[in-house]
Write a structure and sequence with these properties.
The complex is a heterodimer of chains A (427) and B (314). Chain A is of the alpha+beta class. Chain A has helices spanning 2-23, 28-59, 67-77, 99-104, 205-210, and strands spanning 108-119, 130-144, 147-155, 160-169, 176-184, 218-228, 235-243, 264-274, 279-291, 299-311, 321-333, 340-354, 357-367, 375-388, 391-402, 406-420. Chain A has two domains: 2-65; 106-420, Porin (Beta Barrel), CATH 2.40.160.10. Chain A has a 16-stranded antiparallel beta barrel with strand order 1-2-3-4-5-6-7-8-9-10-11-12-13-14-15-16. The chains are: A alpha+beta (427), B alpha/beta (314).
Chain lengths: 427, 314
């Protein structure tokens, strides 16, 4: 409360000074001096207001002022009577001391809904007509001066999973950034993305065939990343990760751990350069190694190359942009009787032609990891409309030519919507 | 059991050394303070008080919408070297800065650390929402309007706060920063007199802005912002709202539409055509055009632009 008293005192003082100014306006010199004084007092008042804001943020009293004052003000400012305004914030008293303070230190909470509808037949990978594909709950906060925590829980229609849940140590010596917990691994580009940030409704065929499907390589372990100094403004970073060794399930299984030593490892090297202020190029090399479902002695190794080119004219950044991306992935899987060497790739492009409209296309090509002589191919076209930054409606036409001459034509409709303070996603 | 641990351990060691062996020993700290700012206006203020004892660079460009900056990895390289990060705050940078801070691996500039400075604490903040807010109101900033630097009084206050911070971080040059800050204050007070005099004939004039980015400017120079091209903050213009704006401009004799350089001119131009008004592309930030490189030039430019437009549209 002390800052408020100070603010009041200073305000009174300032008002007094203003009144005085009126009386002694006869002498120009006095006026100038008084003007200066008023300005100084105003500055002190603003500085104190700023301190009050900082203290409030620290003490965690949230944006609302003292509960009493707020409800009075909201009552007086209530707009048109017909409009149903969410109940004025009544002073909630949680158990224990400092209820509102405890509340303000709550993490940022967000919820993302991902609803998909499928039309057209697909006997190889059947999908339902209507599906609440995923509901993602994000809980994120700074833990202490040394670390932050991020949780993403995904609710499918049948169960709940921890998609990611990790602590990031941001204040390590030597500029290392370390993560511990369950996380999407740094293999390639698409593997690290959550469903709702994908440029398409689905993931490319190569992800589905070779890199663990929708969940991808997503496992419990630890990750260490460091930026490597490189001349000429080139950004280079290296990531090394060690996981328990379980990723994917059923047909999409990539790694399985049979004993404690069956850990899997992932390494990623990322290079980035600005070609000019609107265009940049990113290249990545990835490697992953783990044990497959056949046993400790059966190793699966994955190699990946990715390239992304982005264009966004700064003056019209909210209206136009382009992203072109391609990933090439090789899988080397030990199994009886022969080792299988499979290859897959995709190439995609997405162009924003209006503030709220995006159009895109993707070409898919991928062998199957267990029978590398079988190849699936396909293509997609997509149109996305963003009513605001917090929702998207998209329609995707997908043609797939599965191995064995199974041709499918499908239409995917998706609605994505986001509630709350979902933090920005990594570039 | 031991074998298991030693194997897991060796794998871990491999992963760590793989990353570790690739970096060169870090360079000894340079004498000049490295300052990085979110926007060009803050960089201009840092430059005013820091003089040649600091290096300063802004991440966003002056002609770019500061709400929507791409979190490019090249910024990480700059953040990594920074001794001090100055941000606008009030959640202006919420869409792009937090992941950069997390990833840069620089403990000096993490939120709450000594090298993290939120400049909004020094400024007078307008439009702090009272009561419940929802996204139905558009991109409302729950902590108040973040475009506070467009009031020279706030420029003075922020410069003073930056000078105090620089003095704290580099105590040898404390007197230098204080002296430069006082000099800046004096020059700003003089310039402000000139600006206020130029704008005095147009006090109380009604204007429209595209986004709600000029309340502090209007507050200082006595303009009356009566509407926005956007129906709600961050929501693109709709036909019905555009019609309302046109009717309102005709009814209330509003002649000027102030548009930020990063917005599409189509809607404001058609509003101007229909209502008989004029569009001016004002600069919300230093660097919005090439010639405007200092905090002073920003106001020089905008005030020359507005006074000319007011004269032409009485």
């Amino acid at each position: 409360m002390k800052p408020f008293t100070l603010v009041c005192v200073v305000t009174l003082f300032a008002v007094g000074a203003c009144a005085q100014q009126g009386n002694t306006a006869s002498s120009g010199q006095d006026t100038a001096a008084l003007e200066q004084k008023v300005r100084d007092l105003e500055d002190r008042l603003v500085a104190l207001e700023g301190q009050v804001r900082v203290l409030k943020a620290q003490a965690g009293q949230a944006p609302a002022a003292t509960p009493g004052a707020t409800s009075a003000e909201t009552a007086s400012q209530t707009p048109a009577p017909g409009e149903s305004v969410a109940a004025a914030p009544s002073p909630v008293s949680l158990g224990g001391a400092g209820g509102s303070a405890a509340k303000a230190l709550n993490p940022d909470i967000s919820m993302i809904g991902d609803f998909v509808s499928y039309a057209g037949g697909n006997s190889i990978r059947p999908s339902p007509a209507l599906e609440m594909h995923e509901s993602e709950l994000g809980v994120q906060a700074i833990i202490d001066p040394y670390a932050r925590g991020d949780f993403f829980l995904t609710f499918g229609e049948t169960g709940v999973g921890v998609e990611e849940g990790y602590i990031t140590f941001t204040a390590l010596p030597g500029s290392f950034v370390a993560r511990v917990g369950k996380m999407r691994s740094a293999f390639g580009k698409v593997n690290g993305m959550h469903n709702h940030v994908l440029p398409f409704v689905d993931r490319p065929l190569v992800s589905q065939n070779l890199v663990g499907g929708e969940d991808g390589i997503d496992d419990a372990g630890l990750s260490v990343e460091r930026i490597i100094p490189f001349p000429k403004g080139i950004f280079l970073s290296a990531t090394g990760q060690v996981f328990r060794g379980d990723s994917g399930a059923g047909d999409e299984l990539v790694f399985q751990s049979h004993q404690k030593s069956d850990v899997s490892t992932v390494a990623h090297l990322r290079g980035y350069g600005d070609l000019n202020e609107s265009t940049n190029l990113e290249l990545g090399l990835s490697y992953a190694r783990g044990h497959n479902e056949l046993g400790t002695n059966f190793i699966t190794s994955l190699y990946g190359v990715d390239a992304t080119v982005r264009w966004k004219p700064l003056r019209r950044a909210i209206y136009h942009s382009f992203v072109g991306r391609s990933e090439f992935i090789w899988s080397q899987r030990q199994q009886a009787p022969f080792e299988q060497r499979a290859f897959g790739m995709y190439g995609s492009a997405e162009y924003q032609f209006h503030r709220r409209w995006f159009v895109g296309g993707r070409y898919d090509w991928s062998d199957r990891p267990r029978e590398a002589n079988l190849t699936d191919k396909g293509g997609s076209a997509i149109l996305t409309y963003w009513p605001s930054e917090f929702s998207q409606i998209r329609g995707q036409y997908r043609y797939t030519d599965y191995a064995g001459n199974h041709k499918t034509n499908e239409l995917l409709l998706q609605l994505l919507f986001s509630l709350g303070a979902h933090g920005a996603h990594p570039f | 059991m031991n074998r298991v641990f030693s194997r897991a351990g060796s794998l871990l060691a491999v992963a760590v050394t793989m990353t570790a062996c690739l970096f060169s020993p870090s360079i000894a700290a340079a004498k000049k303070l490295n300052v990085i700012t979110a926007t060009t206006d803050l960089a201009a203020l840092v430059q005013e008080v820091g003089g040649d004892k600091i290096n300063v660079e802004s991440m966003a460009k002056g002609y770019q919408d500061p709400h929507f900056v791409e979190a490019k990895p090249s910024f990480l390289l700059k953040l990594r070297q920074a001794d001090l990060l100055v941000v606008v705050g009030l959640q202006l940078e919420i869409g792009w800065l937090p992941p950069l801070i997390t990833q840069c691996g620089n403990s000096r500039i993490q939120v709450g650390a000594n090298g993290y400075l939120d400049a909004s604490q020094f400024a007078e903040i307008l439009e702090i929402p009272q009561g419940a807010i929802t996204r139905a109101m558009g991109d409302v900033h729950p902590l108040g309007n973040p475009h506070y630097w467009l009031d020279p009084d706030n420029g003075r206050r922020v410069a003073k706060g930056i000078a105090a911070k620089l003095a704290e971080m580099d105590s040898e040059d404390a007197a230098y920063f204080q002296q430069r800050d006082q000099d800046f204050e004096r020059r700003l007070a003089e310039a402000d007199k000139k600006w206020l005099a130029a704008m005095a004939p147009y006090r109380g004039r009604k204007v429209i802005t595209y986004h709600n980015s000029a309340p502090n400017f209007a507050h200082h120079f006595g303009l009356n912002v009566v509407g926005f091209v956007e129906p709600r903050p961050g929501i693109p213009p709709t036909p019905s709202h555009t019609l309302e704006v046109i009717n309102m401009m005709k009814r209330d004799h509003v002649k000027l539409i102030m548009v930020e350089p990063y917005f599409d001119r189509k809607t404001p131009d058609s509003i101007a055509r229909e209502s008989g008004g004029t569009v001016v592309e004002y600069l919300p930030s230093v660097g919005g055009v090439k010639e405007v490189t200092t905090y002073f030039q920003l106001f020089d430019y905008d005030i020359a632009l507005l006074t000319k437009a007011f004269q032409a549209n009485p």
